[in-house]
Amino acid sequence: MHHTIAVNGAQLSSLALGAGDGTPLVMLHGLISGNMASWYSAYATPLARARRVLLYDQRGHGDSSLPSGGFDLDAQAADLLAVLAHHGHADTAVDIVGHSMGALIALHFALRHPRRVQRLVLVDAPMPARDHVAPSLLGVTSPEALAAYVDAELPASGRRRERLLKRLSALFFGSTLMQDVLAMNAEPDAALAALDLPVLLVYGRRSPCLAAGHRLQRLLPRAQLELIDCGHYIPEEAPAALRAQLDAFLSVAVPTAVPAEALA
Amino acid sequence: MSSRNDEVLDLVIAKIRSTINEDWIQDFEIEPETRFNDDLELESIEFVKIADAIQAHYGTQLDIVGWLSGKSIQELISLSVGELAEFISGAVAGSGVDA
User: Is residue B43 part of a domain?
Assistant: First the structure.
């Protein structure tokens, strides 16, 4: 079922799928090319057999609005908090799966609100984004450079290309996205070392972000690292392998969700 | 084609028009052979909206996992309108509930 959620300076488009006794799951897509479709048919609908699955388009993506700011991790973690509250999960701990920028938002959220998270799946988290994400965007300084970037990275034609260019023009030239990404440092080692949650790290063997996976595995106390034979765009490149990882990690029984305030 | 299939096809076409919601689509002739990818140049997020609208229409009569699952969004967008309608008809009929 479709929802529109008003958050700080933006309207977010969101879907709630399925039901069941399992821990509610929210899935976060990646930057620029991602939206709810990244997870919808290949992941969210099958996972929704056993649990409620929440999806949303992050600000500036998919069918959500194009605000001029709020792309930093604090603001995007606040968006996630508002999405969970809207769907009636203001007091429950949820599972979170994120790919790329979505994984960085998920991790930042878990560090800020550890009692609101049951388990975390970070798919090719590019930490720090300043080093792993910003360089590919820095050349996009003019409409011509944007068109070249789109044709190289996100080939599309006709109507799709026009709509993509319109959205990305607003993101690159009318928002703080670039400066927000350039300011994204690694999470502090001590905070990562104190995160007492089961974390599944899934990285592509050929991903330029693989070093981040090894670093997170070393620092997070309860992390397991699984490598898949692909690059950075794991949800599209290796859906069967990623589905198998998610099914295995999320099917392990966890204690019945306890209200967060009771844990506090 | 059974009346069930005709009804599903009409619903899919109506949801395509209301989701795209641009002037050109209102007069665009949508047929079973029309392809989401090549003919409508649909964005992935628009396909999600169409699928969700169809699911909302049928509610529990349509097994969402049965007609979508496992398929990537790229596979779904490469379908024709008629092929999608057939998947839906199968999943509604398969539930054993008459629409």
Answer: yes
Residues of A with CB under 8 A from a CB of B: 1-2, 15, 17-18, 35-38, 40-42, 45-46, 48-49, 57, 62-63, 157-160, 163-164, 236, 239
Give the per-residue pLDDT at A255.
54
Q: Where are the alpha helices (DSSP H) in A60-203?
A: 73-86, 101-112, 129-132, 134-137, 143-153, 158-173, 177-182, 189-193
Of residues A178, A202, A151, the one with CA closest to residue A43 = A202
Say whether pLDDT at B5 is over 90: no
Taking CB atoms and an 8 Å limit, are B48 and A17 in contact across chains?
no
- Within 8 A of A45 by CB-CB distance, chain B residues are 64-65, 68-69
Query: How many domains does one find in chain B?
Result: 1
pLDDT at residue A71 in the model: 98
Over the stretch A11-37, which tens digit does the pLDDT of each residue have? 999 999 998 888 999 999 999 999 999
What is the domain range of residue B36? 3-94
Compare all CA atoms of chain B with the CA of A236 and give the residue at the minimum distance. Answer: B72
Residue B18 in this model has a pLDDT that exceeds 90: yes
Distance between B62 CA and the closest CA of chain A, angstroms: 12
Give the Å distances, CA to CA, from A234 to A124, B17, B92. 8, 32, 32
Is the confidence metric ipTM above 0.90 for this complex?
no
Residue B36 in any domain: the answer is yes
Which residue segments constitute the domains of chain A, with CATH numbers given? Answer: 2-251 (3.40.50.1820)
Number of H helices, E strands in chain B: 6, 0
Instruction: Indicate yes or no: CB of B65 within 8 angstroms of CB of A49.
Output: yes
**Can you give the CATH number for the domain in which B9 is found?**
1.10.1200.10
- Asked whether the beta carbons of residue B51 and residue A38 sit closer than 8 angstroms, the reply is no
